[in-house]
Amino acid sequence: MANQNRGPFSHAVERDLRLDLFRGMGLWMIFLDHIPHDIVAWLTLRNYGFSDAAEFFVFISGYLAGFIYGPIVRDGHFLAATKRLVMRAWQMYVAHIMLFLLFTAQIARTVRKFDNPMYEDEFNV
Asked: Which of 124, 48, 58 is nearest to 66 (CA)?
């Protein structure tokens, strides 16, 4: 039998769709909380506790990271897991910056196109 080299990421972690469902619900609640005077916002976590959907989303995401990277760290591949986490954080950071620049450019374009001072005051551009 051939010697199979098991790398640090050879664990088959099955995706738990329940966690994705709850993270998605958290994102929708965050979105609804940012809409002023929306009646549906009364159904979000902001009104029924000491935290809102942002804390809920971060908690579920942290649990998911521990669920995925926990077995890798437990097998002694701490540096490999750290490298992968840093790479993922970098990807998320770049995506965030790109979306921010795209959003800012779109708002600036809208302000110039419609030439309405209300947009400048509303979006601070």
From this structure: 58
Q: How far is CA 108 from CA 19, 111, 115, in A?
A: 37, 5, 10
Tell me the pLDDT of the chain (125 aa) as tens digits: 444 556 666 666 677 899 999 999 999 999 988 888 888 888 888 888 788 899 999 999 999 989 888 888 999 999 999 999 999 999 999 999 999 999 989 988 888 888 877 776 776 65
Determine whether 44 is exposed, middle or buried from the number of CB atoms within 10 Å of its CB (0-12, 13-18, 19+): buried
Q: DSSP letters of 63-103?
A: HHHHHHHHHHHHTT-HHHHHHHHHHHHHHHHHHHHHHHHHH
Residue 123 CA, chain-centre distance (Å), reads 23
